[in-house]
Amino acid sequence: MGSSSAQTEIPKMTKLEPKVAVVVFLLKGRKVLLGRRRSAVGRSTFALPGGNLEFGESFEECAAREVKEETGLEIQKTELLTVTNNLFLEQPKPLHYVTIFMRSVQADDDEVPQNMEPEKCDGWDWYEWEDLPQPLFWPLEKMVNSGFNPFPT
Fold it and tell me: Which PROSITE patterns does the protein's record reference (predicted)?
């Protein structure tokens, strides 16, 4: 997908480097799993499970690890959907993330998501794609507003 940045000049500081995040559209029927963020960046917004890519990890490995760490769920049929370039210039410290969006399903439909990291998230719920909660975390909001659809056609 495309590049995203605010129309603000990037402050001159010590060397800032982009990070890579992998986030997962975990699908169940026409629903997607979202959690309300507690971190400073995007506090109280709804976001997909995911996190930072670790050295040597594939996108699929990162997706599986992050979903398991955050929700306790095992995933399968994971595939790359798109990539976005996100600048967070209004934060206490500017952030630049290349975000890898993956699509996946649960390995066991009977498993229920658990809040494994309550310091980072208020909890996980399934939401109908046509009736997503607000506010959405900015990178996800941009995807939704662009007409992006994570469901297979």
Answer: NUDIX, NUDIX_BOX
